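Quick entry, no commentary yet.
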Amino acid sequence: MDSNKGKIEKGFLNKMEQIIKYCLPVIAGTMIWVQHFIINKMEDFPQIVNVKDKNYLLIQKIILIAISVFLLFRYDPYDMFAEWKIICILGLLLIIAYIDHKIQIIPNEFILAGLILRGVILLPELFVGFSDAIRNVLFELIACLVMLFFCLLLRFVSKKGVGMGDIKLLALLPLFLGIVGCFEATLY
């Protein structure tokens, strides 16, 4: 009886891994939808007036889908949700880079969307491995606090070198990249 239960659980986990693996392009498409949704709700979104801007917005969507397909074939079952997090943060960062370049503001809507997306990813993480998910989230929250402290310190030491939008964005990164990945991304 126990061997049948073990086979059923293993089969269920294999199905879950397949679902998680093949969700990457769907998540990329969802991130494109999230971008459009927030852009349509923003009142101060920069006007797209030239071909260069239109091309950037098109190319960033193609890049996001291409990276999701690449990650699909490079899938690692031990980092099941890391790929989801990478696609989500890239989807946010690509559009934030455009807005920040145009109007030098990082809208709070995208920071809030990042928090919501991380919460959504946490739900299946809790289902697959509750104790691991709790441990990871605690480390990520500690990393957020460390990054927030570090960035606020930089803001007060430098003369307006780091804006509050940048600080909020950098404090959000550990939720998706972890502490090491966040500091690596910040240094790059």
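second:
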Amino acid sequence: MATPNSLPAYTKVFKGGGVEVTAANTKSDGSGTIGTDIFLVGTVEATIGGFLRNITTYLTATTAATATTATVVRYFWSSVSSGATTAANTHPLGEFAVASQSADNSGTATFPVAALNFQNTIPAGASILVTNHAAPAANTKLKTEAFWGEYI
């Protein structure tokens, strides 16, 4: 089916999704197991697809002034939304080096550590995935959110 209103990208429904990244994935090719070492942020509408607006990752902690782990955050799109991913069905959107920050601080705010303003069409039924290279420190997590528009 042809994508309606794609030039310029007028979408009909606004969607968003988010996930906590709680484990490491030391591979940069997109292979892994969804929910174990590669995490599902959201899945785009299955008939026509959508227009990915942005993906952002934040550092969080449950204990005051906890230092997070320096790592690399990687974003992917994939044709699968559960089970195992491979380099053949998972494709990179971008990656960012992330410095350690003191999260849950009373005097200093943390800032988004990675932000991808993608602004492009994403295939129908594609899943948006995220990994981080180093395991989060105790009492810390990376939270990733994405926002997209769907054409139907």
